[in-house]
Write a structure and sequence with these properties.
The complex is a heterodimer of chains A (about 180) and B (about 550). Chain A has about 180 residues and is α+β, with helices and mostly antiparallel strands. Chain A is about 25% helix and about 35% strand. In chain A, β6 and β7 form a beta hairpin. By secondary structure, chain B is α/β, with parallel strands linked by helices. In chain B, the strands form 4 sheets. In chain B, strands 3-2-4-5-7-6 form a 6-stranded parallel beta sheet, sandwiched between helices. A 6-stranded parallel beta sheet of chain B has the order 11-10-9-12-13-14, with helices on both faces. Classes of the chains: A alpha+beta (about 180), B alpha/beta (about 550).
C-alpha cells in the first residue's frame, strides 16, 4: 500500500453543476470506504458543468471500483483516470513563514529556483506562493524547513490532458 | 393552464400513471393535500399510522406490482420517518418516489419548526434526490425522477418540495408517462463467450436473485435451467422465480440456504450469476466462494462488476435481454454425473420433522401453501420467521414473495403487506411476522381496518427475538441479553381493539382452521402461532465461514 500511497491516482470527473453535487460525490467516497487525498472543483467554460479532480490511492481493483461507483451517480457525465505521462498536473501552495531580516535574500533565492513568488512581506514574515506538481511542492516545503511555518494551505491537484483534444463526455447523458 | 406547485405535483403523479399513494399530512404538506382533495377520483391517497408504514407500503406496492411506489410526507419528522423505508427500497433496488414537503425557502437553513435537510439525510440511501427551488422546474424534475427510479437498476428517488414552491403558480402542460430507459442490447461477443462457457461446463450452477424479478426474466430463467439442464439456486430476493420442487431447484443459497445449494456452488466449475450481488449473506467468505468455478455474471449495474467477488466475465445488460440472446446458443447437456452427485447430497440436507402436539415453522408454511395456494403473496418481516418463510415458501409466482433482503428491516412487513394488498387486491396477502418484528409496526393494523383490507398476519410467537437469541445461544454462551423481553401482549385482544379479527393457531389443526376462516373475512386478521423459543433456523453457515462449516442438524450444534 505504501507504494500506491505515494503514487496517487488522479481522477477527473465532469459533473452537472447542481446544488450538493460535490457533497454527493464526496459522500459516496466516504460511504464506500474510498479515500480522498485531495479534491478540487470549479466551473468550466460550459456553465452546465463542474469539473472535479480527485486524487486518491489504492490498487487497481480499488481504482476500478471508484470509477464504477462514481460513474453510477446520476449527475456524473464523465470519469477519467489520468494515467501518468499523458496529463499536466498542478497544485498551488500559499505558505506564510517566519523570516528574519537577514534571511530575506535566502528566501528570494529559494523562490527563484522553485519559480515561487513572494506575495507579501512584513517585518517578521513572508507569504510565498508556488505552483507545481505535488512532489515539487513537497520539495519546496522541504527547503523551507529552517523557516518556521506560521500558516499554509495547498489547493489540491488539478489536472488536464495534453494535446489538442478535449476530454470527451456525453453532455446529454441520461443515466439509466 | 396556470396551476400551483401543489396542483402540478399532483397532476404529474396522475400523468405518470400513479393511482395509489401512501402518506401522512402535515403543516408543510397542507397545500399538496389540498390539491389531492380535488383529485380524489383520479388518485387515491392512503393514510398510514406512521410515515414509516407509508414508505414500506409504497415499497410493497412497487414490489408486488412492478410499478413505481409513491409515498408522501410533511417536512421534518415526517420526512425522517420515511428514511428506513427509503433505505430498505434502496438496498433491494425497488423503484420508489418519496415526496417530502419542506418549510418555505425563506425559512430553510434557519432551524425552523419541522425543518430537516432531508436531501442531505437521504443522499446515501437514494438513487438520486433533489430539492426543488423553483416551481418552473417542478413538473420536469418529477418526470425525470420517475425516469431515474424505474430505469436501469431501479431504486428510490426523493423529491423535496418547499412550501413556497407548492404555493407558487406556473404554466402546466400535461405530458406522456415517461419511458423507462434500458441499457443497450448486450454485447454479442460477450453473449457468445457466455454461451461457450456454459456449454463447456461440466458442473455449472445458476444462481439468480432479485434482478430476475426486477427484469421480469422468470420465464427466461426457467428456460435456461430446462434448456441447458442446469441446476439452479437463488438468493432470498429470488424466491418464487423457479417452481418449488423442480428437479433443477436446489433452493436458497447462503447463510441459511440449503446444504445442496451451498455445496453446488463450492463444487461447481461454472457459476452463472443472474441479478445477484454476492452480499455477505450469500458469499459468506469472499475468498473461498465458488473456489473451483469460473464466474459469469449478468447484471444491469456495471458497478456490480467485481464489487464483492472477482468475476471471470461480466455481461452488462438487462437480464431478460441477455438471456433472450443467450438461450438459442445453449446446448442441452446431460451432466448426469453432476446431477447424481448433487442428488446424493439431498439426503444429507436438513429437513425439519414434525413433533406431535407442536406447531413447527415449516408446518405453518406448508399449511399456508395448502390452504392459500397459488394465489398467495407472502410478505415477511425480518428474523427467523423470514428465513423459515423463504426456506419453505412454495410460492411459484414472481413477486409472490416480498421481503426486506438487503437492509433486513424489522417492521417492514405490515406496511409492505398493506401496500401489496392495494397493489394486487385480487391476491391473498399473507403477512408472516415474528413477535419481535411485529411489535415494531403493528400499529398499521388501523390502516388495514380503515380500508377493510384482507391482510392475514401470521405471528410466529416464540416470545424471544429469535434470530439474535439463536446467535446468543450459539456464540455468546447463552447470555440472552435483551432477547427475552417478557412481553405479555394478548394479540387477539389487540387486533380486536383495532377493529380486526384475532385467532389462536396453537396446533396445526387450529392454525389451518383459523387461516381458512380468516380468508372468509373482510378486513385484517391476526393468527398467533406459538413457537418453541429454541427453534433454530437451519441449515446455518456461521458468518465468514464456508459450506464446510454448515450445520444441518440440531445435534451438531452443541
Amino acid at each position: 500500500m505504501a507504494d500506491t500511497y505515494f503514487n496517487p491516482t488522479v481522477i477527473v470527473m465532469i459533473v452537472e453543476d447542481n446544488p450538493n453535487v460535490l457533497s454527493r460525490i464526496s459522500l459516496m467516497f466516504g460511504q464506500r470506504g474510498f479515500n480522498i487525498d485531495t479534491i478540487t472543483a470549479s466551473h468550466t467554460h460550459d456553465p452546465k458543468f463542474t469539473r472535479i479532480t480527485i486524487t486518491t490511492h489504492g490498487d487497481q481493483t480499488v481504482i476500478d471500483r471508484i470509477v464504477r461507483q462514481t460513474h453510477k451517480l446520476v449527475e456524473v457525465h464523465k470519469v477519467a483516470v489520468q494515467t501518468a505521462g499523458t496529463h499536466i498536473e498542478r497544485e498551488l501552495i500559499l505558505v506564510k513563514v517566519e523570516v528574519k531580516e537577514d534571511q530575506r535574500s535566502q528566501i528570494r533565492e529559494i523562490c527563484e529556483i522553485y519559480h515561487g513568488m513572494i506575495v507579501e512581506m512584513t517585518r517578521t514574515s513572508m507569504i510565498l506562493e508556488m505552483t507545481g506538481k505535488p512532489p515539487r511542492i513537497d520539495a519546496f516545503l522541504e527547503v523551507l524547513e529552517p523557516y518556521p511555518i506560521i500558516e499554509m494551505t495547498r489547493t489540491g491537484v488539478t489536472a488536464i490532458d495534453r494535446g489538442p483534444e478535449p476530454l470527451d463526455y456525453d453532455k446529454d447523458r441520461a443515466y439509466a | 393552464m396556470l396551476l400551483t406547485g401543489a396542483e402540478i405535483a399532483s397532476e404529474v403523479l396522475i400523468e405518470q400513471g400513479v393511482t395509489d399513494i401512501f402518506g401522512y399530512p402535515g403543516g408543510a404538506a397542507l397545500n399538496l393535500y389540498d390539491a389531492l382533495y380535488d383529485r380524489q377520483d383520479r388518485i387515491h391517497h392512503h393514510i398510514t399510522a406512521h410515515e414509516q408504514g407509508a414508505s414500506h407500503a409504497a415499497d410493497g406496492y412497487a414490489r408486488s406490482t412492478g410499478k413505481v411506489g409513491v409515498c408522501i410526507s410533511t417536512s421534518g419528522p415526517g420526512a425522517t420517518n420515511l428514511v428506513t423505508g427509503i433505505a430498505t427500497a434502496y438496498m433491494d433496488s425497488i423503484p420508489m418516489i418519496a415526496i417530502t414537503c419542506n418549510v418555505a425557502q425563506s425559512l430553510i437553513g434557519k432551524d425552523s419548526f419541522q425543518e430537516v435537510f432531508i436531501t442531505g439525510v437521504t443522499m446515501p440511501i437514494t438513487k438520486y434526490n433533489v430539492g426543488i427551488r423553483s416551481v418552473n422546474d417542478l413538473a420536469d424534475t418529477i418526470r425525470e425522477c420517475f425516469r431515474i427510479a424505474k430505469s436501469g437498476r431501479k431504486g428510490p428517488v426523493l423529491i423535496d418540495i418547499p412550501k413556497d414552491v407548492l404555493l407558487a403558480k406556473c404554466e402546466y402542460t400535461p405530458a406522456e408517462p415517461i419511458k423507462t430507459e434500458m441499457p443497450s442490447k448486450p454485447d454479442p461477443a460477450l453473449i457468445m463467450e457466455a454461451a461457450k462457457m456454459i456449454n463447456a461446463a461440466e458442473r455449472p450452477v445458476l444462481c439468480f436473485g432479485g434482478g430476475a424479478i426486477s427484469a421480469d426474466a422468470s420465464k427466461q430463467i426457467a428456460s435456461l435451467i430446462a434448456d441447458g439442464h442446469i441446476p439452479a439456486c437463488h438468493t432470498i430476493m429470488g424466491t418464487g422465480v423457479v417452481s418449488f420442487g423442480d428437479e433443477h431447484d436446489l433452493g436458497m443459497v447462503g447463510m441459511h440456504g440449503s446444504l445442496i445449494a451451498n455445496e453446488a456452488i463450492a463444487e461447481a466449475d461454472l457459476l452463472i450469476a443472474a441479478g445477484i450481488r454476492f452480499s455477505d449473506r450469500v458469499a459468506l467468505n469472499t475468498g473461498k466462494f465458488a473456489p473451483n468455478a469460473k464466474i459469469l455474471q449478468f447484471d444491469i449495474d456495471p458497478s456490480e462488476n467485481s464489487k464483492n467477488i472477482n468475476v471471470t466475465s461480466f455481461v452488462y445488460g438487462d437480464l431478460k435481454d441477455c438471456l433472450n440472446e443467450l438461450l438459442p446458443l445453449i446446448e442441452k447437456k446431460e451432466r448426469t454425473e453432476w446431477f447424481d452427485s448433487l442428488n446424493g447430497l439431498r439426503e444429507k440436507d436438513y429437513y425439519p420433522k414434525s413433533i406431535p402436539g407442536q406447531l413447527r415453522p415449516h408446518e405453518i408454511m406448508e399449511i399456508i401453501g395448502e390452504v392459500v395456494g397459488e394465489d398467495a403473496v407472502i410478505v415477511t418481516d425480518v428474523g427467523q420467521h423470514q428465513m423459515w418463510a423463504a426456506q419453505y415458501c412454495k410460492a411459484t409466482r414472481p413477486r409472490g414473495f416480498i421481503t426486506s433482503g438487503g437492509l433486513g428491516t424489522m417492521g417492514f412487513g405490515y406496511g409492505a403487506a398493506i401496500g401489496t394488498k392495494f397493489g394486487v387486491p385480487e391476491a391473498k396477502v399473507i403477512h408472516i411476522t415474528g413477535d419481535g418484528s411485529f411489535h415494531m409496526n403493528m400499529n398499521e393494523a388501523c390502516t388495514a381496518v380503515s380500508n377493510d383490507l384482507q391482510v392475514i398476519t401470521v405471528i410466529m410467537d416464540n416470545k424471544v427475538l429469535g434470530m439474535v437469541h439463536q446467535w446468543q445461544n450459539l456464540f455468546f454462551n447463552q447470555h440472552y441479553m435483551e432477547t427475552e423481553p417478557g412481553r405479555r401482549t394478548d394479540y387477539v385482544k389487540v387486533i380486536e381493539g383495532f377493529g380486526g379479527h384475532g385467532f389462536e393457531g396453537d396446533t396445526p389443526e387450529h392454525f389451518r382452521k383459523a387461516l381458512e376462516e380468516a380468508l372468509t373475512i373482510q378486513g385484517p386478521s391476526w393468527i398467533r402461532c406459538p413457537i418453541d423459543p429454541d427453534e433454530f433456523v437451519l441449515p446455518m453457515i456461521p458468518a465468514g465461514k464456508t459450506v464446510e462449516d454448515i450445520v444441518v442438524s440440531e445435534e451438531d450444534l452443541y
